[in-house]
Amino acid sequence: MSPLPSATPATVLRLGTAQTLAWASSYYLPALLAQPMARDLGVSTPWVFAAFSGALLVSAVVGPSAGRAIDRHGGRPVLMATSGLFAAGLVALACVQGPIGLFAAWALLGLAMGSGLYEAAFATLVRLHGQGARSAITGITLLAGFASTVGWPLTAWLEVTVGWRGACLAWAGLHLLLGLPLNALLPRATAIQHEAVSAPPGSATAANKDRPPRLAWTSTLLAFSFAITWFISTAMAAHLPRLLQAGGVSLAGAVAVAALVGPAQVAGRVLEFGLLRRVHPLISARLAGITHAAGAAAFLVVGAPAATAFALLHGAGNGILTIAKGTLPLVIFGASGYGARQGWLMVPARIAQALAPWVFGLGLDRYGVAALWGSAGLCLLGWGALMALRAAR
Known about the structure:
It comes from Caldimonas caldifontis. The chain crosses the membrane at residues 48-66, 78-100, 106-125, 137-158, 164-186, 215-237, 243-266, 287-313, 370-389. It is a single chain. This protein is mainly alpha-helical. The protein folds into 2 domains: 9-196, Up-down Bundle (Growth Hormone, Chain: A), CATH 1.20.1250.20; 204-388, Growth Hormone, Chain: A. It is built from 19 helices and no strands. It starts with 8 loop residues before the first helix and ends in a 5-residue tail after the last helix. The relative contact order is 0.15.
């Protein structure tokens, strides 16, 4: 059996660029287009976010099937089809005339998100490179970490220039003119590579197959930790400026501090790619898993002067944990069946992600900045789950 090749810089660049486009045109779209959409369609802004939450639920349902398809056929055909789904969903969104069409268009985008965001990209790399995919996973998250940095200004400019419908059409065109060719240039997964990702007899992965209770417990701990991570990440993405203001930070200061989360995420991923690359992913995940709680405690106790530290700690930890979502299942379970397993592990995370803006928003409305104690407590629970995991030898 020939060893799997390492990921080339060209593969990482293509996949990372396509991921940047996918995230910018889906996950980060409502932040800037929800209000003009609601105003034009004659609905309230929460209706738009409800449709977006529906898309996240759809993505949770489709994730395991997309993962199985990548395990069987490789990521290239799946991601190429996903480029078409993104384009179709965005065109449908540009054409909606009422609430029913709004939810239908976002459901179509949910199909694309469930089969074309990070989990699909990670599965594509593992299908091609097996256990050697860790550095490539970090590389694409480094590139896609700039999705909001690139996407928000471009979406804002398009909305002002051609309106929100024109912005959706422009993003659809980019998927066909840029995303589809980039995914089409990805390497094909061969039958030899498919066999190479299977666990050899006597390996830790093969041994896990003989211990179903332990395997189920490990999967439960991982899914629980990922769900908490996504809940906190999405809650902060939706409410961080308002949360900072509730803690005594001015409006201008809150916007400036919240803008530090993106660079902090990239810095965390650079740290993972550099100093932490020789450390077991479980160790780096445990270190990152406590940062939100530490930053939240500092902000709650000290107040506004600690706002910057909170944003930096939250962002850096979230950046590393994004990588951990791809690397931990790989090193603990192995590469065989990675795509389907990753899809199932992320189902609770997608559901938590869909509920996060609403649930944390209710807490913020009722308790103000003290709602941050809730996310800090959840963070500690997620960290406890990581501490309960055993590193695979």
